[in-house]
Amino acid sequence: MNHRSRKRIREAKKAARPELRGSREWMAENLSETFDLSPEIVNNNVERVDVRSLTRDEFIERFERPYKPVVLTHTQDHWRAKEKWTLDRLKRKYRNQKFKCGEDNDGYSVKMKMKYYVEYCETNKDDSPLYIFDSSFGEHAKKKKLLGDYEVPNFFNDDLFKYAGEPKRPPYRWIVIGPARSGTGIHIDPLGTSAWNSLVSGHKRWCLFPTSAPRELVKVSSQDGGKQQDEAITWFKLIYPRTQQPTWPQQYRPLEILQRPGDTVFVPGGWWHVVLNLDTTIAVTQNFCSPVNFPIVWHKTVRGRPKLSKKWYRALKQHRPELAEVADAVDLKKDTGFASDSSSSDSSSSSSDSVSSSSSDSDSEEERGNNRKRRRHLSRSPVSRRRCGCGEDTARDVCENKEHHSHSGSPRR
Questions:
Q1: d(Cα 106, Cα 212) in Å, to the nearest integer?
Q2: Do 369 and 359 meet the contact criterion of CB atoms below 8 Å apart?
Q3: Distance in angstroms (rounded) separating the CA atoms of residues 266 and 198
Q4: Which of 71, 226, 390, 413 is the most exposed place for a label (fewest CB within 10 A)?
Q5: Pair type for strands 48-50 and 70-73
Q6: How far apart are CA 66 and CA 212, in angstroms?
Q7: What is the sign of the dihedral through the CA atoms of 149, 84, 139 and 230?
Q8: What pLDDT is attached to residue 369?
């Protein structure tokens, strides 16, 4: 690695994680040598279904309506990404394009050119490395070519947020690239949305908990986690062993997934989930609102994004009047019954798009791992306000955060 590469990587790391001072603190626990990333240790206990023998109606009735996670196979059989999304090819084609790999304390994106990030990916020994979690690739003249390399699985293509208009809708799709030990801290996706995550290469380790799992049970405390509180690897090091003890509540035993290349994980709205990369991974993930989860998403959007909800409602009235009727019937005074990350109360973090006073986890997938940074920024701010992932200045007690991923902001998963 030459001097310029080292300098750019050092600058990005300093901007994204200023609390870690120097390489010693980035590698303080020597997890690259001591943490077990073996796929064999994953207790793979989530149902796997071949989509070639699954209809859309069957998917809805078996998984989406009952809010049941599932791993779908053969969703990528015709994707060009299977051949085109390798580190080497991405480095050559997008070498000078910048991708988001974190956020600074003021909420601005920290970006790195692909050529430098690939070098970092291949050489780092950090305990919890920087992680590309970029939601803007589809809006960039050159990077948007990535959109042509994959297709949204047909189970998820009726995304009702499309009626809100592309510029106004919350961030919803991310290209996700990270080395071993990077990942997404535990969170609930924003605004009650569900998500799908398709892994093109590498292996991911997932743990999921139902929406009823208490936040204090599944989250890492600041006392235990320290400067690495929001990192996925910290969760697996500290919380996962507790889930295997007899004292852990049986109703909250985790669902576990070893996601392999070609697998698509469906995460229903409201489910807590944490994701760790076991090796270098490349994936795409999207959050969505469907007719099934619409009542919950509508409730949270009206509460958290009132301006967006008005525009969305007008569009639904025109294009999907039956759903406008559903919106009219939603009782906004009742609790949705969906837990929230509630990060905003002490804070978010990851992706950030959700902003609901009822507190669902988030803001858009990109801010997932930034709870720590926002807390620090808020403590210095003369006014208790912050810029949430939805791009609006929102009072602290109104905007919720999504912890989507350790360093960027995610789905986001």
A1: 33
A2: no
A3: 9
A4: 226
A5: parallel
A6: 14
A7: positive
A8: 40
pLDDT of 49 > 90? The answer is yes
DSSP code of 38? Answer: -
- Please, are residues 182 and 406 in contact by the beta-carbon 8 Å criterion? yes
Provide the pLDDT for residue 4: 93
Distance CA 190, CA 362 (A): 4
**Residue 261 banded pLDDT, cuts 50, 70, 90:** very high
Strands (E), 38-166: 48-50, 70-73, 98-103, 109-113, 132-134
Please give the helix or strand (H or E) that residue 301 lies within, else none: helix 294-304
Q: What are phi and psi of 71, to 5 degrees?
A: -105, 120
Alpha-carbon distance of 188 to 192, in angstroms, equals 8
Q: Report the alpha-carbon distance of residue 199 to residue 203 in Å, rounded.
A: 8
- pLDDT one-digit tens code per residue, 165-211: 888 889 999 999 999 999 999 999 999 999 999 999 999 999 999 99
Question: In 3D, which of 230, 246, 260 has the Cα closest to residue 341?
Answer: 230
Q: How confident is the model at residue 1 (pLDDT cuts 50, 70, 90)?
A: confident
Q: Which residue has the tokens 């929230």?
A: 340
d(CA 286, CA 109) in angstroms, rounded, equals 19
Helix or strand run (H / E) with residue 257: strand 255-259
Distance (Å, whole) CA 168 – CA 391: 10
Distances (CA, A) of 37 to 182, 233, 255: 11, 10, 18
181 closest CA partner among 323, 277, 303: 277
**pTM score:** 0.84
